[in-house]
Amino acid sequence: MTHQQKKNTIKPNDCKQLTLKGTAEKLLLFAMWLTLALIRHQWWLQAFLFIGGICWLQWGVPATRNKWRFIVFASSFVVAGSIGLIMVTGDEPFDAWFRFSFAGIWWGITPDSMAYAGLMAARSVNGLLALQFLIRSCSAAEGLAIARRLKVPDVLPELMLLAYRYLFGVRQTTGEVMMAQRQRLGYRGFRTSVRSFAMMLTAVFVKSLRLSLMNYQAMTVRGYQGVIHQPGHWEGSSKLKLMGILLMGCGLLVFSLI
Q1: Residues 124 and 168 placed together within one structural domain of the fold
Q2: Which residues pair with 138 in a beta bridge?
Q3: How far is it, in rounded angstroms, from Cα 17 to Cα 10?
Q4: Nearest-5° angle of CA 15, CA 240, CA 35?
Q5: pTM score, two decimals?
Q6: Is 156 a residue whose pLDDT tops 50?
Q7: Residues 123 and 211 in one domain
Q8: 234 lies in some domain
Q9: Residue 193 is part of which domain span?
Q10: Tens digit of each residue's pLDDT (9 = 90 or more) over 86-144
Q11: Are strands 105-109 and 98-102 parallel, antiparallel or unpaired?
């Protein structure tokens, strides 16, 4: 293999953004995806968005240990919240799959309530998939460029950067404390686990406070005066891809209105 062939060879880890590289393309696709997920109520459209989001997450994102963690964790809250939408109430008995009387009120589950709860859950999950797409496709530099073009106050991106840096220290401290507790059989039973977890929270709070003071002192020594000079980056977009995304979104919207 020649040097030019090696240069043009795409590595497996470089396949993340082969289709969308432009920042405007990612923003437009996110906006269309989120809009269709939240404003339209057709089952076929929500199923199409869900299947597309799952396929993108499976084959468009490099294989990592926590690739599905956000969606699974957030979807569990969506499903739990949708349980309350399944139940309907009434003063008199009504046709339902399952009903009972409690405190003078009839409670039951009807086909309409099941369909409504399922549709709301699907819309919420599709919104989460759209948010996951924006988070995973845009880098930190692109996020700063987007925030500046949207006239977001400078204090918000600065707080996000500080929190992002701070979380790594908290995570490392938590791991060190829990490892030391496990070596001392701190999580052997339920009672010892509760006691060890409470002690871990106290130790992490004290160490994280000390870590934040050390970080602030280090930033002050390096000339920090309340503003982090973090450069942003706006990737150029293809007009053809922007037009394709817009036509696809408008086409789905028109079909959903028919």
Answers
A1: no
A2: none
A3: 12
A4: 80
A5: 0.71
A6: yes
A7: no
A8: no
A9: 153-223
A10: 888 777 777 777 777 777 787 888 888 888 888 888 999 999 999 888 888 888 788 88
A11: antiparallel
